[in-house]
Amino acid sequence: MALAIRDVREHDLDAVLALNNAAGRSILALDATRLRYFFEHADYFRVAEIDGHLAGFLIALREGSDYDSSNYCWFSQRYPQFVYIDRIVIANAYRRHGLGRIFYCDVNSYAEVRVPLLTCEVILEPRDDVVVLFHGTYGFQEVGQQRMSEQGPQVSLLAKDLPSYAYVRDTYLQSGGLPDVPWLAERKHLIPSNTTQRRLAGERRP
């Protein structure tokens, strides 16, 4: 089995949309417009490809986006820097084989050299104990709860401290930036996100 985790490409979008909308009640449905927004603005949008087949994807955004998700906004109101995991979807044929952990390791590696906090939410209605346990064993802790809308589900807001960030900030981010190597590179956006625009402008945050 040949596994590749790579940045999404435009020709993947139809398959990503179909995979998302077949995932069931635990994943909010997408339309083509929302998916295009992610393609153009998400700081992290990677897919898993196994033997040439799309096996899953994960989408995450940093602080400073105009993303209108109520959960993203909850974190934006409380934390100055974070990476927010909006969704992870694994195709049925590839579930329960560790692909979710591979994605979380990858997004963790992306986040820990950029921000002090990795965040997400878990839907509690209906509660999926496998999902709750997965996040708990990966180091996430609940920092709040909210109802997504008047008729929406209750969610648990989760955050994971990234202790490596302080070292990276002090050693690299405050003195020239990250080394210019492929595994540390930013995703290439069609339209630069707010955080990308800040970095291009030379802004440094403590």
UniProtKB/TrEMBL annotation:
InterPro entries in the record: Acyl_CoA_acyltransferase, GNAT_dom
Database matches in Pfam families: Acetyltransf_1
Secretion signal span: none
Keywords: Transferase
GO MF terms, alphabetically ordered: acyltransferase activity, transferring groups other than amino-acyl groups
Keyword Transferase assigned: yes
UniProt-listed SUPFAM superfamilies: Acyl-CoA N-acyltransferases (Nat)
Coiled-coil regions listed in the entry: none
Protein name according to UniProt: GNAT family N-acetyltransferase
Lineage: Bacteria, Pseudomonadati, Pseudomonadota, Gammaproteobacteria, Lysobacterales
